[in-house]
Design goal:
Blueprint: H1 2-21, H2 42-54, H3 77-85, E1 88-91, E2 100-103, H4 117-123, H5 135-138, H6 142-151, E3 167-168, E4 176-177, H7 199-214, H8 218-246
Antiparallel strand pairs: 1-2, 3-4
Helix pairs in contact: 2-7, 6-7
């Protein structure tokens, strides 16, 4: 009986520990791009890009996004060219075999904050900040998880000890996250369109932008799917009527 009691106690302790480390349930919000008719809001995507550029890009890259794809979120060709030219891009080798630095072009990918992983580790206590190109698709919960994570920082409950490089986040598995809180105050940025930049608003906008980065063809895919269903429905009706006409005299 003592053995059984010990085993049950062990399981109960494991359950308590697991529950203690479990992330809080994710708050779900309606996204404009949800559902088969969902689309991105261009003004929100532009605000989200501003948050990424001014806040997130100091640590995280988006290696799968090219400058010219920003035209899809409402920027003009001239704006994209000017934005690309504001970056210095490593290129080469030239005819002499040397690498060189040039101004960015719309066909370039957005340069990341670090030249290599070792440089990233050196600047982040040995950790490499994840690339954000597919972060919305790579995390369970998708956009809801990313938004919740950005707003989930809080002081640790009593009894929880954090190391100097750790931060408490209610939605992160295990709650202890190395990334410092990126959105720390309302009006951290000044939106170009005058939108009130609350933390919740900034988190939602940058999450929508990252959803676009993860699937920039989403609207085209949904439109093609809808048109395909219409075509199949029309052809089904046509074939049915044709069959009725051909076989109408057969008893």
């Amino acid at each position: 009986m003592n053995y059984i009691a010990t085993i049950l106690l062990g399981f109960s302790l494991l359950a308590v520990h697991a529950n203690h480390d479990a992330p809080d349930p994710l708050p779900e919000i309606p996204w404009s791009f949800d559902g088969w008719r969902g689309t991105f809001k261009r003004d929100q995507l532009q605000r989200g890009f501003q948050i990424y550029k001014e806040v997130c890009s100091s640590c995280h890259g988006i290696k799968l996004l090219r400058f010219r794809e920003l035209e899809e979120i409402g920027f003009t060709e001239a704006q994209v060219k000017a934005l690309a030219a504001s970056y210095d891009v490593d290129d080469g080798p030239n005819l002499e075999g040397d690498m060189f630095v040039r101004k960015g072009l719309p066909s370039d990918v957005l340069p990341g904050p670090y030249k290599n992983d070792n440089q990233a580790k050196s600047a982040n206590n040995g950790a490499v900040p994840p690339d954000l190109s597919l972060i919305v698709k790579a995390r369970k919960g998708g956009a809801n998880y990313v938004r919740a994570l950005l707003t989930g920082y809080m002081d640790p409950p009593s009894g929880i000890t954090l190391r100097e490089t750790e931060h408490y986040n209610r939605y992160f598995p295990g709650h202890k996250i190395a990334m410092a809180q990126p959105l720390v105050a309302d009006d951290q940025v000044t939106y170009a369109d005058g939108t009130n930049a609350k933390i919740s608003q900034m988190a939602q906008d940058v999450t929508a932008f990252l959803a676009f980065v993860a699937e920039p063809e989403m609207e085209h895919r949904k439109r093609a799917g809808f048109e395909t269903l219409l075509y199949l429905a029309f052809m089904t009706l046509l074939f049915y009527l044709t069959k009725r006409k051909i076989w109408k005299d057969v008893k």
